[in-house]
Amino acid sequence: MSVNDNSVNIKNDKRGYHHGDLRSALVQAGLELLKTRSAEEVSLREIARLVGVSATAVYRHFPDKAALLGALCDEGGRELGRLQLEAMQRSGGGRAGFDAVGRAYVRFALDNPTLFRMMMTTRQAVDFLDMPEGRDNSALQLLRDNIASLTPAGASPEQRRIAALRAWSIVHGLAMLMLDNQVPTDEALIDAVIDSMSAGIAT
Amino acid sequence: MSVNDNSVNIKNDKRGYHHGDLRSALVQAGLELLKTRSAEEVSLREIARLVGVSATAVYRHFPDKAALLGALCDEGGRELGRLQLEAMQRSGGGRAGFDAVGRAYVRFALDNPTLFRMMMTTRQAVDFLDMPEGRDNSALQLLRDNIASLTPAGASPEQRRIAALRAWSIVHGLAMLMLDNQVPTDEALIDAVIDSMSAGIAT
DNA sequence: CACTCATGTTATCGCTGTAAACATTGCCGA
DNA sequence: TCGGCAATGTTTACAGCGATAACATGAGTG
What we know:
The structure is a homodimer.
Chain A: H1 22-36, H2 44-51, H3 65-91, H4 94-111, H5 113-122, H6 138-150, H7 157-179, H8 187-199
The structure holds a DNA duplex.
């Protein structure tokens, strides 16, 4: 009779036995919980509870917890791509665009700490360096073009690779360090580091 | 009668009721398990099992699991400091020393993925940028001096701060990206990025 | 209108971290 | 030398977790 069993029994609002679109409701609820709790603190049962459904209903839509979290990561990836693309376009491209994309990357990380961490830890490698022309990473592709246009004309592909990786390392490292409170989350600091990054890209 | 209860009952070797130095045995075992398993996959009970002691015995030495993991982080921090100091000294300081410390940082991360991740996520901020002259971070202090000597003579303290943070971001970002398989773990790549980092430190 | 099968539920398992009560023993003062 | 206490171990217990299996419901199609 414990209230924390698999059953939830709330089911306050009128929705019958079938939910309608449980899958996206679970994703929605998961993203919501990730805003406050850290990743391993979010339980399947809690997500199900929030949606108002039994814990095991989740397994009709995801093979296991990792799969659900993976879906959250997908959602986050799309959002990040959108933000980066928007930042790039708003800034007008070129070096300013490069900086803007970097800032969008860091900002996304700071705005979605748990999700970002999970995306990086869990997700399949995007293989940013080899830049597959694949479907879903338009932002990365944009970035690639930008880096290509910023590096000196005579730069070898290998040099471009290094420049790209260094730039990625800078924004990623900065984001992680701030996420982990190793460095104060200071807007001016972000700008300064990113500025010094793009200044040095034509090494 | 389950074999997975709190009790372990192995206790094969002759050690009586009292262990002798259970605390460091637990730390030792914890570090061992972290080599193969990821952090959240290591359970208190498993560590205790490995040491041959009941699960709850742990609580005589650590208030909770986080505290034990914290002790592992401390150990890792000391080791990292040692390695960086050694790298610095072996290389003879200067720019070579700076690179060597960066490489040691990345290498430590790659050699101790779980521990490194935990150290960064869990640990109290070292506040690398403000560089407390504190006792235990001799390596960081060394690094600070090195950065100071590498930046142009006319650089302001703020500029040095930025240069230091960018350098840290590069090695940290590179380490994390490789740890997360976002980038191939390639020795030559590490060298190239770090080389381009120290080349650009006098920006 | 009946059947089917996708989608929900309940019951249960073994694992986890942790609290509480009990057991053992090293050590220190009388 | 002995008595007892504090430190350090053990057993027992509990709630929450992810996951499986068996069962219930009902939407949509023939």
